[in-house]
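On to my pick:
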Amino acid sequence: MSLSTTIKTVCVYCGSRLGNKPYYQEQADELGQRIANAGLSLVYGAGSVGLMGVVARSARENGADVIGIIPSHLDDVEITQDGLSELHVTDDMHQRKKMMFEKSDAFIVLPGGLGTLDETLEMMTWAQLSLHEKPIIIVNTNNYWSPLLELVEHVVSDGFAAPENANLLSVADDPEGAIKLIEQFNTNR
């Protein structure tokens, strides 16, 4: 995948809940640290709850700029994180996703629910339509995203997507692998 710019800002999609296994939270914390240590900025959904809150606090505590983007109707539900480098409040979810896209050079996906799935599939669809060439990296914590990866293969094998669409996602086993992929994209650009 060719990119026209160096990756400096990474959008992280992940749950507004912690999940019920401790390693989800541990990997979110590690990803925040690794984003900061790599000199990257974080774009995320601005909430203080769930994995997104863990990633943001960890990135901020380790020196990263953290840009939060939240629609006004979720401000009370997701409780906006304090101490953000930038906070943007949008009118709706569509504006939020668009702004997250515009402010990011790449996407990293941790475990999450339907919102995370929606955001990930939208970025995949936009890439399929040649609207962007930004890397989309799945952190497949304990095979959490394996069913999605299998579904993408199924869609391709049954002829509902072109074979190259199976390559829209890059997969890492852990946060370290995700940051290594970012570094590889930057080296190969």
